[in-house]
Amino acid sequence: MARRTCSQSADTAKEGTEPPPFPVPHTDYYFEDGNLVILVENTLFKVFRSTFIRHSAVFRDLFNLPRPIGGATEGSDDDNPLQFSGTSAVDFARLLWILYPVAGTLEEWTSILSLATRWEFNDIRDLAIRQLQTLPGVSPVDKVILAREYEISGRWVLSAYTALCERPEPLSIPEASRLGLETSVRIAQLREQLRASLRKSSRIGGYHSLTQSAAVRHASIASSILASAGKRSPTERQQWGMGKSFLYQCDVPPPAPVCTSHQRSVARKGATAIPGTARLVAEAFGIDIAG
C-alpha cells in the first residue's frame, strides 16, 4: 500500500464526512520518524514504541511476546499495522494528546482516563483524574458516575454525593436512570434523613446536625414549601404521597455501600474531620475521604 502523507490525509478529511475506503494517516499523530504503526478504526497512527513501553505495562508485555519467524512484525509499517478493535480513533488520539501533549474538556479527559485505565498507563491515569477534579462545571451526577466507573475516591466524589443530598430539588428521572436504583434510593433516604434532622433541630432551637450554610438553605426551602402548600392540587398531593410511599414501603432494601474493608476503616477514621452532612454521606457510601 502506498504511504500517504499527513497533508494528504487532511485534504481527504475536508472533502466530505464519509470515511475513506482505505486507512489514512492521522493528521497530527503520524510521525514520519516513528517506528510503531497502529490502526484504529480506519486511521493510521505512527508513533514511537519506546513511549508505550515506558508508560504501559500492557504494551510492555505485548512487545515482549515472541515475534513470528519469517513473517512481518505487527506494527512495523502501514501494510502490517498493530490493530485495535473496540476503540475509537477519537479516543485513541486523545490519549496521544497526553503522550505527545495536551487535552482539556470533560469528554477528552474521560477518554484518556478510560484508555489509561484499560492499558495500565498508571501515571497518565493519575494525571487524568487530577485534571478531571479541577475541571469547572462538571455536574455532581457526572462526578459520581466517573468515580464509580473508574474507582475514584476522596473528597471530590464526596462533594458530589453531598451536593445531591443537600440541593433543594430531588433527582430527576434522567439523573436517577443514570445513577441506578440503589444509588438513587440511597440518596433519597439520606435526603429524608437530613430533613428529619433539620426538623428536629429546629424544634430545639439549633442546627446541630447540619452545617450552618446548609441549615439556612433548608430553612428557606421549608418556608417556600409551607407558603405554597395550600396551592397544590389534589393530584399533586396524591403524587407526592405515592412518592413517599415508594421511599418508605418499597421492597428494595437499603443498598450496602460498595467499598473495601480498608475504605470503611478509613472513612470511619476520617469522618471525624468533616462536619454534618458530609460525614453522613461518607459513611453511607463508604467513601475514602483520606484521598
UniProtKB/TrEMBL annotation:
UniProt biased composition (Polar residues): 1-11
Q: Which SUPFAM superfamilies match?
A: POZ domain
Ranges in a coiled coil: none
Q: Where is the BTB domain?
A: 36-133
Pfam families, alphabetized: BTB
**Annotated TM spans:** none
Ranges for the region named Disordered are: 1-24
Looking at the record's lineage, which domain of life comes first? Eukaryota
Kindly provide the name given to this protein in its UniProt entry: BTB domain-containing protein
The organism named in the record is: Polyporus arcularius HHB13444
